Amino acid sequence: MNHQGYISLFLSLILKTISIVIISNITVRTMRAIAQQTPIARITNIEGGKVWVVKNSSKSKEANLGDNLFIGDMLRLISGTKVVVKCRDGKEYRVDNVLLWSTSICRQPEILGSDLNKLRENFKENPYVLIVTDGDEKILNRIRDVPGLEDAQFAKTRKGWNYVYIRAYPNSNEAESMRNSLKKQGIRARLVYAPKDL
Length: 198
What we know:
Number of helices: 6
């Protein structure tokens, strides 16, 4: 094969690679768009105050009975308000913490709700926990974009301070590895020993 042949082969490989990347990105975006248009839950009761639904961490509107919740929505409650949400599986969950993602509401038996009491048993086997003590919605969204950290969310300790819960690990090496990875992305996470600190 002559010099021009190698160049042509190289260029065709580059074009194929670019095409695959573009098609993959379009497919992922399309799937996300479909998921965001499919309700995952519905508000069935509101007590004690007002509730807002925050769309894509920016647009906010007051919620009413019967409103649907979609992936990417966040419920924002004033203190003292309680909301009941019915998920697609037919189960109803009571929400009373100030900020909670819609996807977290429908997975309350699995992951963190308004405090860490629901994870106490998990901490026996996974006591090393990554948190961000001064995290906001932007930080939370950036963390959730990291594969394996989609369940990160706002939480509160027994001592009463708020933070972003990232994930619990069985040993400090795994947690430290993820902490360093987040640090390279500009996210300053802390490693804490859950049974003592949370």
